[in-house]
Design a protein that fits this description.
With about 625 residues, the chain is an alpha+beta fold. It contains 21 helices and ten strands. It is elongated, with a radius of gyration of 31 Å.
């Protein structure tokens, strides 16, 4: 970039003022969050291996990805509208002799400078906010007590460099459009509602829509369980959301026509005309509403659907009447005591064991395993989804695998690494259907060194003379044995409610953390769009005043039109959510699981109300300022 164009970009950035506040804030917050999550990831690697560490790393990684995505969306959408507003200014540059390349470089330079300033602010904010971030994670029970985050240099530098990169990448399309402004545009009024759905936008939107369809279809055909993984159902919907946001101006028109079909009154006709003809204005408000609602629906509905499917699967598989959790190291003694005290009872004792399955390329993949002392008792109390073979054939030279391990066949020899490092090759005794992917590998205690019984499923003998149920004496003996060994006794329903809750508080806190950040970004974009698009209607509102409308009527018209556009965006976001959840439900059906489809109506409705509470007051306030002056003055 030449020195002259750099000076021009600097002056343009300085003159942009409030119009560039939204992208600056979004970028600064994005850099701050990226830096803090990277610092948190570095600190989490020092934690002991386990589920808590894995969940924390997944939480931080998801938050970082969502932050970069939404920050880029806000910058791209706000800059696209800002470039359209400056069409006359850019036309003057072309008329003064600037080439298309110079105009593009000027816009990109402005974005790079904005990115540098935002990155500096974000890095400083992250460095000062790291202790608070660690305390918040601990308070929410997402990190262990005493969790501390240091401040090594490379995460801060990485996040700082990401700021200008995201800004320039997000503004690339807007810069290209700026370079295509013709010199004669300087002679036209700065009306921004020009053609929005350009061939490039159609191409990008349809390409992303096709990509989303291909990703979903490939998973459904090849590996439906892939759609149930946290990484997939968190990140893959963003492809569909981006496609819908790019196509929002075109998708919104049919819904707007439907919502404004009854246009008998003058206000209704004006609302319909303004919403349908103000294509760019409509798209600028619809896109962040669509993003907000779709993210809220996807981030809450997908994990809830998976959790409900796993709970339904657990209910179907668990046939035991009671489940006992023994005291550490006392499981074997407890199982023996139960067999002695309850003649005729079926007792299935299992122990969680460490195991690594060696894949064909030599990679040892660590997985959860269950050591089973009595395969017959296991099959009596657990309805395993056996696809081939028999679990009762399990012995010291075999194991039971799920189909996800390369679709093994009964009789295949599978190399494994036991918990003590011993390498063995075990025969496949039975193959289980994948289901939701919660199937452990089953083996015998001999192949689970160091494992101790940590769960006992039990069904007692029928009560005398009844043929079903348990007698009072049997229940008393069961409770006495459990109390004597310090074990926790739960009925089937109590155990399922404890281990497969439909509203796990920790899961809800994880979702709230990621979703709250995403909604913060989109709220910035929505407020910016409502304020700027309404402020640009000064001449239109003045003409309406000259036609006889009062100030209150003009403001009410803008508020009604904004509300209609927000409802349209919320409906589009709901449709995107429905498409993603429908794909997950199809995957569950293909996996043989009959879990319910959980539609998060509460999250969808609350997000739509939040968008309304942001957009309508902002648009009404901007309209009230726009009609303060006399109509003749505004038309000058």
């Amino acid at each position: 970039m030449t020195t002259g164009m750099l000076r021009l970009a600097t002056r343009s950035l300085r003159a942009g003022g409030p119009a560039l506040l939204a992208p600056f804030t979004a970028l600064a917050l994005g850099v701050a969050l990226m830096a803090t999550t990277l610092l948190g990831l570095v600190a989490s690697t020092a934690l002991p291996p386990g589920d808590e560490r894995t969940a924390l790393i997944a939480q931080l990684g998801t938050g970082c990805g969502v932050a970069v995505f939404t920050a880029g969306f806000v910058v791209a959408s706000t800059y696209a509208y800002a470039v359209a507003r400056r069409r006359r200014e850019l036309g003057l540059l072309r008329l003064a002799g600037a080439t298309r390349g110079q105009v593009r470089r000027s816009v990109l330079g402005e974005a790079a400078l904005l990115g540098l300033l935002a990155a500096s602010a974000g890095a400083a904010l992250a460095r000062g906010g790291v202790p608070l971030f660690a305390r918040l994670l601990t308070a929410a029970d997402l990190a262990p007590a005493g969790f501390r985050i240091g401040t090594p240099a490379w995460p801060l530098v990485t996040a700082f460099c990401t700021g200008p990169l995201v800004a320039v990448t997000a503004v690339a399309v807007a810069a290209r459009r700026a370079g295509r402004v013709r010199p004669l545009e300087a002679l036209r009024e700065a009306d921004v509602d020009t053609r929005v759905m350009t061939p490039g936008r159609w191409l990008c939107g349809l390409a992303l829509l096709g990509t989303s369809a291909v990703l979903t279809g490939t998973a459904l055909i090849g590996d439906p369980a892939e759609l149930l993984h946290r990484k997939t159902y968190t990140l893959q919907p963003m492809v569909l959301i981006t496609a819908a946001a790019l196509l929002a101006p075109a998708l919104a028109r049919p819904l707007l026509r439907l919502l404004t079909a009854r246009r008998g009154r003058v206000t209704g006709r004006l609302v319909r005309g303004g919403a349908l003809t103000g294509v760019r204005r409509t798209g600028a408000i619809t896109a962040p509403v669509l993003l907000s609602v779709a993210l809220a629906g996807s981030l809450t509905g997908a994990p809830a659907t998976v959790a409900a499917a796993r709970a339904a699967e657990a209910r179907e598989r668990t046939a035991a009447e009671q489940v006992l959790t023994p005291r550490d190291g006392d499981g074997d003694a407890l199982a023996a005591a139960l067999r002695d005290a309850l003649p005729g009872a079926v007792v299935s004792a299992t122990a969680t064991a460490g195991l690594s399955v060696v894949e064909p390329d030599g990679t040892a993949v660590r997985t959860e395993a269950q050591a089973v002392a009595d395969p017959g008792a296991l099959t009596a109390l657990t309805r395993l989804p056996v696809a081939d073979g028999s679990v009762t054939a399990l012995d010291d030279d075999s194991l039971v695998l799920a189909e996800e391990w390369g679709h093994p066949a009964v009789g295949d020899r599978v190399p494994v690494v036991l918990a003590d490092g011993t390498r063995r090759t075990l025969r496949v005794a039975a193959v289980l259907r994948d289901g939701t992917g919660d199937n452990p590998v089953y083996l015998t205690p001999r192949n689970a060194p160091g494992a101790h019984t940590d769960r006992i499923d039990l069904t007692t003998a029928p009560a005398p003379g009844t043929g079903t149920g348990t007698g009072t004496g049997t229940e008393d003996r069961l409770r006495a044995v459990a109390h004597a060994h310090g074990a926790t006794l739960a009925t089937r329903a109590e155990w399922l409610a404890a281990y497969y809750p439909t509203d796990d508080p920790k899961r809800l806190r994880r979702i709230a953390g990621v979703l709250g950040l995403a909604l913060l970004y989109t709220a910035i974009a929505l407020a910016h769009a409502a304020l700027t698009t309404t402020a640009d209607r000064r001449r239109e509102l003045a003409q309406l005043r000259l036609a006889g409308a009062t100030r209150a009527q003009a403001v009410r018209l803008v508020a009604t039109e904004t509300f209609t556009v927000v409802v349209t965006g919320a409906l589009l976001g709901t449709l995107v959510t429905a498409a993603g959840l429908a794909a997950m439900q199809t995957a569950l059906r293909l996996l043989g699981t009959t879990g319910p489809l959980v539609v998060p109506w509460g999250a969808l409705g609350a997000t739509a109300l939040l968008c309304t509470a942001i957009a309508v007051p902002c648009a009404s306030t901007a309209a009230a300022f726009a009609v303060r002056a006399r109509p003749v003055t505004a038309l000058r």
